[in-house]
Every structure is written in C-alpha cells, then in structure tokens.
Amino acid sequence: MKTFTNLIEDVQKPGLCHRCGGCVTFCTAINYGALELDSEGKPRYADEAKCIECGLCYTICPEIDELDAETRKSSGWRAPIGRVIETSIARATDSRIRQKATDGGVVTALLVHLFKRGRIDGAIVTKPAGPFQRLPFLAETEKDITDAAGFSFDTSHGMTSYSDYYLTYSQVKEFDPLIKKGLQRVAFVGTPCQINAVRRMQSLGIIPSDSIKFCLGLFCSGNFVFGKKEQEKLGRIGGFKFKDVKKINIKEELIVHLKSGQKKIMMLEELEFMKRFACYFCPDYAAEYADISFGGIGSEEGWTTVITRTPVGRAIFADARPAAIEENRTKDFPKRTAQVLKKVQTWSARKKETATQNRKVLDLKFPGIKKDS
Question: How far are the Cα atoms of 49, 195, 309 from residue 75, in angstroms, in the given order?
Fold first, then answer.
C-alpha cells in the first residue's frame, strides 16, 4: 500500500503537484491531523504518526493513474477531449452579473439559478481576497455567489474550503458537516485537476463526495502564481500599472482592461514566467470530467463558451435558459458553435502534446514517474 510518503516521492519531488488539495481534503485521517496544506497550498504531513496509511491520498491524486479507467468510465469520458453533448455560446441575462463577470457570467448565473430553484444549498467557489487574488469559499446564498464573481489568476488549492466543511471521517459525528451544516447538495466550481480529484472520489464512493451534485469545470491554460513580483513584471511587459487595472480576462490572449477604458493585450506565451511548474505536465485544458465546462476561448467578448458533457449538466443548463442564461443564437449559430468546439479541441490537443513532450524530459530525470495523457 502506497502512502503519502510515496506521494511526496512520486509527485511532489518531481514537481508534479498541482496543489489541488485533493489528498488533504479527502484524507481519511484528516480529523486526526495527519495532513495539512502549507501557506503556499502544498500538501504535507501535519503529524506523520497520525497517518493510518490507507493509501487513499495516493490513489486519488490526479497525477497517479490507478483510477484513470474507473474515472473515465464513471464520467462517460470519450476521446479526444471528453464527452461533448452540446456546445453553446451564452451569457447571463442579468446585466449586473455580466458587468462583474469575466466573460459572459454564465457560471455565476447558473449557480444563482440553482439556488433559486432549490437544487443546491451550497457551492464551492473562490472569492476576492485582495486585488486580483482570491481564496476558496463555500457560498451558501445567492449573494455569496454574486459577490464571488470575477476573474482569478491563482486558482490554487481551491478544495481547501471543501476540506474545512467536509471532513471525510464521517463516523466521528461531531465533525460530520453533513449534519452540522446540513449541506447535502453542493456545486463545485474548479480547474481540471480539482474536478479530476472529485471524480476519483466519486468513482470510489467515498463520503462526502456524494454531496457534490454538480461539477462545473473551467478551461485552464495553466495555474499562475500572481504574487507581487509577478504583478510587477507583468505590468512592465504590458506597459500598465496595476492601480489602473479594472479587470483581467484570458481568451486566446491575456486581456487587461484599464479603468480608462483602454485594453492591453498580451500573448499567453508572455505569461510563462508565472505558470506553476506542474502545469507544464497537465494534459487537460477543457475540464474533461466536468458536467459542464466553461471558458472564454472562441467566443466574442462578453460571451462564454459552454460545453455540456453529462445528462445532468445538459439538464441544469437547459433549465436555466432563457430565464437566467441566453444564447447568442444568430442564424449561423450551429456553424459558429462548431468553430468554437474545433478551437477548444485545438487548444486541448496542444496542451496534451506539450504535456507529453515535457513528461518525456521529466522521465529522464525521474525514471519511475509515468503518466498517460
């Protein structure tokens, strides 16, 4: 049985840890303080003596392929970018959401709609924690959701809030949040690696992953470190000062909206200095295991590209139309959505190829590390 010690050797030391927080979140010994996240979101032993060596943390890590087949089967995954039921170009009908949102505000609008319909009583999102930085957050009201809307560079360790509220050793009833908080229907918004970790837990039937009713995935070119040094360098490259920034968005390029109304556009290649090392080895661009995937690529400004992947994803998206979400249905809508899907497939293929090539180099340094794309 491989333990967290093996995870350190096989994932952390080669630099492959995405800091998704899954291993800490779902540790069966978390109530006893075996694992924790450090100040930078990196998993570590809090008290190694308390580890029961169950091997769960190792098995569910997105960088370990033990559950790949089960996860793909349970999610209905299909090559090349996961199951695709429908592709759409959409935005929130509420102009207040659109004004605050990154693209078309579809994720926010959908979550608000799910609250209004009584379909969820909580949602794992991120909320602002300073200029252009965010922290994981368990939203329990519509206001929580709208307050959390907007763009985030650093989406790291987004499952820590899930860990705070969903301690997995449920036999210890005084720590069982399903009773304490009464949250049994939760939507999870996350990056591909975070969605992957949740799906692995669901494929094993591990409590409390059954509380996650909807997985909403975000397109991801990479997870970026957005500290003071990175902000200063990005400002020099783009020719702007962050005190003048109103909003930041990523589509095919990085788009910086200034308070003056001016836009600064930079190629994503110019952000490589900000990217986390592990992201160079991740093959998932389009959140392939989500119920619905979202991103700005391919859509006009102010609109969101939406890929529904599962029957439940299609159902909740359809239910939100046209009250909460509207589609950009011009006469050439089928042609345009086909073009959008093709672009997503192109970007996905590019990320997979990059990950494959980078892993070949990494394998020379760490021969025991293998990961299928």
Answer: 36, 11, 9
Q: Are 284 and 373 in contact (CB under 8 A)?
A: no
- Whole-number pLDDT of residue 368: 60
Contact 218, 287 (CB under 8 A): yes
State how far the Cα of 289 lies from the Cα of 294, in Å rounded to an integer: 12
Calculate ∠ Cα 10-65-154, nearest 5°.
70
3-state secondary structure of 138: strand
Per-residue CA distances from 328 to 249, 298, 300, 306 (Å): 20, 13, 10, 11
Q: How many residues does the chain have?
A: 373
Q: What is the pTM of this model?
A: 0.85
- The pLDDT of 85-114, averaged and rounded, is 94
Segment 173-201, tens digit of pLDDT: 222 333 356 678 889 888 898 889 889 98
Q: Write out pLDDT tens, residues 110-151.
A: 999 999 999 998 888 887 666 556 677 788 899 999 988 865
Mean pLDDT of the 293-301 span: 92
Residue 88: name the closest of 321, 244, 285, 253 by CA: 321
Dist. CA 267–CA 234, nearest whole Å: 11
322 burial class (0-12, 13-18, 19+ CB within 10 angstroms)? exposed
At 319-357, the pLDDT tens digits run 999 999 999 998 899 999 999 999 999 999 999 999 999
Assigned token pair, 57: 């943390």
**80 Cβ contact partners less than 8 Å away, ≥ 6 residues apart:** 345, 348, 349, 352
Nearest to 54, CA basis, from 175, 208, 204: 204
Q: What totals of helices (H) and strands (E) does the chain contain, helices first?
A: 13, 13
Instruction: Please confirm whether the linkage preceding 80 is cis (ω < 30° from 0).
Output: yes
- DSSP-derived secondary structure for 271-316: GGGGB-GGGGG---SS-TTSSEEEESTTSPTT-EEEEE-SHHHHHH
